[in-house]
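User: Quick one: structure for sequence A, then sequence B.

Assistant: Sequence A:
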Amino acid sequence: MADLSVEEMKIKANDVTNESLESTRRMLQMTEESLNVGVKTMTMLEEQGETLMNVEREMDQIKQDMKQARKNLNELSKCCGLCLCPCNRLKSTESDWRKKQVREPKESKQKVVSSQPTAVRNGQAVSAGSVAPTGPYIKRITNDDREDKMEENLSHVVNHVEILKNMALELSNKIEDQIQIIDHVNNEITTITSDVAAAEKQARKHR
């Protein structure tokens, strides 16, 4: 194969530059789309977290109501002249023990995404303070505006990848916190069910 002429080499370099520029545009588009998905996922998790916290508060209120119900039943036993020996008194269940256990909040891990300065790009808030590798990212051939744009695109891509990494860590933390709340609520439901059964059993004695 004959060696390429100077003109043919210029044409080939021009084609490669155009293809490379288009590739960086696609990469930038994909990372922006991933950021949008991440933001939506974070919002959904926050809403779910609020719902779980509301359920947890309701469980705590039910526990308080059951405590008052136990107290009322024990007072009723006194009024009826029943002997309130330890075996006759409605015993506090494990919920009283759990009530004393303060769920230790998880060590708050660094919330990089939420604490970083933000800028607006294409209508989306993105971090302006991510620590990311700096350029140059390409080896210049034509040294024109297209290569400047490639550098700019790749700089945004690297920044977006850093934000996505930090966002993934924060999502993981939120999910772990919510799993703890769900476990706590499930335990409370079991305890409350036991309390209700015990209260119903004692209430039958006064019929």
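Sequence B:
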Amino acid sequence: MKEGVSIMGKFCASCGTALNEDAKFCAKCGSKAFQSNESLQINTETPPETVKSEQEIPKTMNNTKNNPPIARASNDGPQNNPIGMGKFITEYINQSLTVLKNPKQMLPTVVLGLVWLVLALLGSLGINPLPVRILSFLTFAQGGMFGGVLSAAGGILGKVVVAAFLNAAIMPLFQKKAPFSGIGGGIKGFFGGLAVKSITAVAPLLGGVGASLLLYTFMNSTQSLQNSMVGIIAFVMLLQNLGRQGGFLWGLAFSAANSFSKGRTPSYIGVTRCISGMTLGFALGMTLSAMGLRWCAWLGIVLLIAALIFVIVSKNKKEVAAA
């Protein structure tokens, strides 16, 4: 009997992205991770051409630009649909807690926490010179410090966003990697997502703008320019998500669409438009803060209602066309 080599691969069944062995879901599209049950037996005497073609399989599966996730989901037969939003968030938090196993990765967050503490003590003593105000702006130190319980909760969420961004910016430097990779592709994807040619395409765009304005208001309850750094950071992180076609918000958008559409796999371009809308919304929120206008909350509600109207109108047009 000829000897062979067994190869077991783990990949996303919806978009084909290669996954870590312990991954429970795809951070790119939100789908459940799929462990292949098939083992490829490569004969030691297999011709070079055959081996080469088999080694190229993962590369083909991971090609999302030429064959988007939604297209492959319809062409490759039964696929695992993206998981629901609640389960996605729970599993994402569980995976994020694995950082506790490596204390070195928590160092930027610990340093940032100490900076927040020092700035809070200086503020309570009435010490607030220009350098302190600048550092407070850059670190979002005053987020959630004023207002009630809702403001405090929003400030905590904003500080989590800032800490996550700091880790994402610093840790790649120790690995000799570019910390802001994907920004260039994100800018291209952003403007591409803003190009709408039908009523159906307007809904996710307006919904993304409205949702991000409400989220910005939640994290920056005063809607002040002093606390607008969280909006700048969210803007940059969304551009990275668009450029890499992955990340927390990318997966969250897929899982949310899956929950709200009763299990249907969301459109790839629809998710792109939604995240482009969110990117635009954070930019709009920062602009309003710079102008001293506290319009984000009601403007976000109006845009979400408008998005819902466009969804209803689009659905009615499809039903009329089908009839």
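The CA atoms of residues 12 and 242 lie 19 Å apart. Residues 1-9, 34-80 have pLDDT under 50 and may be disordered.

User: Thanks, that's what I needed.
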